[in-house]
Amino acid sequence: MSEMQEGRTLPQSVQESAAAYGIIREAFGSAVSDFDANETMPFFEVLETERWQEIALFMRDHPKLRFNYMACLSGVDYPAEEKLGIVCNLESLGEFGHRIAVKVKCARDGGSIPTAAYVWHTANWHEREAYDMFGMQFAGHPDLRRILCPEDWEGYPLRKDYAVQESYHGIKVPY
Amino acid sequence: MGLLDAGISKHNVLVTSVDNVLNWARLSSLWPMGFGLACCAIEMMATNASNYDLERFGIFPRSSPRQSDLMIVAGTVTMKMAERVVRLYEQMPEPRYVLSMGSCSNCGGPYWEHGYHVLKGVDRVIPVDVYVPGCPPRPESLIGGLMKIQELIRMEQIGLSRADALKKLAEQSIDPQAAIERDRQVVRV
What we know:
Chain A is of the alpha/beta class. Chain A is built from three helices and ten strands, in the order ββαβαββββαβββ. In chain B, helix 4 links the parallel strand 2 (97-101) and strand 3.
């Protein structure tokens, strides 16, 4: 999938990401979206959310992919689509050096994404943070508790429609 | 003039009031609790270190609330931390003093509007005696705040409540605007 965008050659790093994506596309077909050759961070989306864990394992263990390092997992709120999502930045550290971002989405109310905590241990706390800030569930997560906010905090602070609670344990919260 | 400058070699009796001696002892050995919450703590540590040398005032941090009589709230107090701050305050023996250092603990600072997790002023949970403005305050400001605490202690008497002492202190303090004007006059002359 080494693509040309409007006649311009893609940078070397994006071409490597595109090659890696080609292997994933071949194995999973329509379960993943097309490749987006974003120069800052090339990415693709997992369209069949329930297959995310399978794809993650494949990406980690395939001899030509070896995405052995999860640099970051962030949560995202898409209020217009009524969805929540995560963005995982993956790299093949010390092996191929290529990198790619994977987006996974779920329903905004009561949605669930399969956990990647058993694939990359980094995902454990990062998923807890995404859950803390956005409120999506991570199915199969070993210890899905809030990580930053107090355990009895109300609401999910990074959702676009978040309104802060009036008081916490009798202390006024807004200014 | 301090006691040590008074030349007491020929006399062996000093007459003073209990209040004075007690206050002198207390204000000359203010022991703050050694804890910092954010970047203000870095300035507080710098103040404790050799350049600014707080120990010359007898101020040096203790690691237990039960041994300290001053709490320097240096930094951002989150809602999660607020309850811990209250508990630490309650563990300190009386008489105890609280110095709120920096904009965050004064009023929420830069988090006043969108910082859902920040307590908008530590005075919402514990009584504060002296506020030091700044983000973060320079060591000189912190020392200024500590001098204010010492003034407050000097003001206290047996039978005079803290509130009254604070009121007396407020009456004594100079109007900053007038002081600025006066300095300008001096410069012109």
